Amino acid sequence: MADFQLKIRRFDPESGEAAYWADYGVDLPPERSVLDGILQVKDREDASLAIRCSCRAAICGSCGVRINGKSALACNTRIGDAAERARNGAITVEPMGNMPVLKDLVTDMEAVHWKKVRRVVPWLLPAEEPPDNQEYIVPAEAMLDVTQAMACIHCGVCVSTCLSMEVDPDFIGPAALAKAYRFVGDPRDGEHEARLRDLAEDPHGIYDCTHCFACVEVCPKDVAPMDQIMRLRRRATADFEIKDSNNGYGHEKAFLNIVERWGTNHEAQLLPRSFGDGSLVKGQLSPDGAKQLTRELPTAFRGLRSGKVTPRKALLHPKLPDQRQVRRIFNEIESKDERLELNLYIVGETGADEEGAMAEGGQEA
Amino acid sequence: MRLAYWPGCVSRGFTPELHGSMAKVAPLLDLELVELDRANCCGAGVIAEHNQELVDTLNARTFAMAQRVDGAAGMMNICSTCQGAQSECQERLDASSEYRAAVNTHLQPEGLSYESGNYWWNKNFLWILAEEIGFETVGDRVKRPLEGLRIAPFYGCYIVRPTRRLGFDEHPGRDEYLDQLIEVLGAEPVEYAGARKCCGFPVITMNRTTSLRQAGRHVADAIDAGADCMVTPCPLCHLNLDMQQPAAARFVERDQLDLPVLHLPQMVGLALGLEPGELGMGKHVVSTRDVVHKVARLAAA
Fold first, then answer.
1. Which of A41, A45, A328, B207 has an alpha carbon within 20 to 30 A of A271's alpha carbon?
2. pLDDT beneath 50: ranges in chain B
């Protein structure tokens, strides 16, 4: 047994008082969970402490909190480990971020998480009627691609940590977008393109993810929501060529075209090409592209004035000495009918040398 | 120490002061850098989003070139984004010999092949300083302790997450190195909320509001915490935090922000006795004048 200090964020809306920190001591073996610690406080010191929990085994997804600032399930975090990372000796426990607090450690999942999940139409929209009195039959391998997204337990821990949502509360967010991929990747669903078009055109959709890995880092079930968002982007651009008004398609095309042509990034052309679906001409001459470029002119001017960017550098970009090799690699791989992917979620990081590790996914449309 | 050196695209593009300052600093730390001048862009997450086999092949090509550098201890990069994008590919390439072989077939016409093994690594300059050179040695080389300078560390997402892929099991302190280094160089690390958050650069073309709110908020937080400047090991973060800083101010309801943002080798170079001019500190959008003045007042020990 050991003594641990818990510093818990308390808030009771009925008291009329602001949220405050309260200190508690608990007595537990280090391998027990932070949730066990919270429940001991509730049991021995203050029964009014509110926490939502049920299974205590990282299955029900109820006890999401922030421990020492990091979003996690309280039942899935050892109190001894948390104490090692604690600053000033006390483990801090706060309610999840990016959502309203109802009381103490209980947040309003309905106001943010469930609302966003419903936004992505979280049910199957079948391509055809099911066979009479039968279920749809899908080969198991056709579902492998979505097993990772299906592992989500809707605990909201990724939502809590999402850095994009922190500045844009309207961002659909990691959990809901992972859920969207669960259907976009499902061969039985008949609305892949419509779903993708919707999420690509929404300014708070798939192109509002800043690729910060925060959700990947905290997910207790290894769903890697950001990876699912990248899969949505891959499908939207490569499979359906959805030219969205957020420049998502343009940015990806611009980047690829530049690296294929020069081997390294030519930043001066990335912006104008991004605004023109990958085309330099369209980016500069189309009304929308020109408008967006004009908005960037002050930044470009500041770059020139500081000497970071010279007119020569902006116009001329050297090719790599053996750029034809890079171009050849692009041609070889982009001309394949099937994408070769290694999914480490399915095979594990060390067990990949087994059969079936590699999937060759067909391309749609 | 001899290293295969991947400078990245941005350090030779819009942040030439990064590449230049690294070249000045390396000999002072006994680093012999063999530049991979035929290597290609790491993909910065964008090529990975498009096609996994393509990005893995492009980075396997870079790794294979690095592995052919005679006597190199490993490969060094100077960009958090290169670190993250390349670590992602290396993780897949190392996990499956079958997948690696498939990727290597695309490198064969060039006579290249990426060989997997625990002996080979690719590390950001920050990790090289902490793990290969050692902070004690770095401290011994300091000629001008940056006393009185308050520096806000900004790590860049790609170098701190996901921890499992980025070797935190073996090196759990990797998300503290920048703070520690600031102290080793005699300056004071500034605590503020944004040190390990996102600069917003990846969505600057797709959602300018989200992007500049992120950049603006971190700069504003660092200013409020009393920072004289920021330092980052990532040139992409630098683009959003420095180049876009004047534009970011209005997204966080400020008239102006005005916080200089240093590249990691610039900060190290100042402490090792190099002059601001040699380190390209005139090539910033947000003037580094106040930092330069403070440093000038510090007597070289």
1. A328
2. none
Q: Which helix (H) or strand (E) holds B88?
A: helix B80-95
**Percent of chain B's residues with pLDDT above 70:** 99
Residues 232 to 261 of A: which have CB under 8 A from any B CB?
233-234, 237-238, 246-248, 250-252, 255-256, 259
Minimum CA–CA partner of B214 in chain A: A167
pLDDT higher than threshold 80 for residue A356: no
- pLDDT bucket at A365, cuts 50 / 70 / 90: very low
pLDDT of residue B157: 97
Which helix H or strand E contains B237, and what residues bound it? helix B235-238
Helix (H, G, I), strand (E, B) or coil at B197: coil
A86 with A139: CB under 8 angstroms?
Answer: no
Q: How far does the CA of residue B42 sit from the closest CA of chain A (Å)? A: 8
> What is the spatial distance between Cα A314 and Cα A317, in angstroms, rounded to a whole number?
7
* Predicted confidence (pLDDT) at residue A30 exceeds the cutoff of 50: yes
B200 contact residues in A (CB cutoff 8 A): 167, 210
* CA–CA separation, B208 and B199 (whole Å): 12
Contacts B281 to A, Cβ<8 Å = none
């641990």: which residue's tokens?
A: A4
Residue whose entry in the numeric block shows the structure tokens 């967006």? A292
Point out the residue among A234, A306, A328 whose CB comes nearest to the CB of B285: A306
From B200, B210, B46, select the one nearest A202 (Cα to Cα): B210
Hey, is the C-beta of A360 within 8 angstroms of any chain B C-beta?
A: no
Please check whether residue B257 is in contact with residue B216, taking contact to mean a CB–CB distance below 8 angstroms. Answer: yes
Helix (H, G, I), strand (E, B) or coil at A161: helix
Nearest Cα of chain B lies from the Cα of A260 at a distance, in angstroms, of 10
The pLDDT value given to residue A138:
86
Residue A330, phi-psi category: left (phi > 0), alpha (psi -120 to 50), beta (remainder): alpha
Q: What value does the mean pLDDT of chain A take?
A: 92
Are the Cβ atoms of A341 and B109 closer than 8 angstroms? no
Which sign, positive or negative, has the C-alpha torsion A199, A203, A207, A213?
negative
Three-state DSSP class for B153? strand
Can you give the three-state secondary structure of chain B, one letter per residue? Answer: CEEEEECCCCCCCCCHHHHHHHHHHHHHHCCEEEECCCCCCCCCCHHHHHCHHHHHHHHHHHHHHHHCCCCCCCEEECCHHHHHHHHHHHHHHHHCHHHHHHHHCCCHHHCCCCCCCCCCCEEEHHHHHHHHHHHHHHHHHCCCCCCCCEEEECCCHHHCCCCCCCCCCCCHHHHCHHHHHHHHCCCEECCCCCCCCCCCHHHCCCCHHHHHHHHHHHHHHHHHCCCCEEEECCHHHHHHHHHCHHHHHHHHCCCCCCCCEEEHHHHHHHHCCCCCCCCCCCCCCCCCHHHHHHHHHCCCC
- Plot region of B148 (φ>0 → left; ψ -120 to 50 → alpha; else → beta): left
CA pair distance B33, B61, nearest whole angstrom: 19
Kindly indicate whether the ipTM for this predicted assembly is greater than 0.90, answering yes or no. Answer: yes
pLDDT, residue A359, reads 61
Angle at A312 between CA A310 and CA A316, to 5 degrees: 130
Query: Which of B106, B92, B80, B98 minimizes the C-alpha distance to B52?
Result: B92
* B73 Cα to chain A: minimum distance (Å): 25
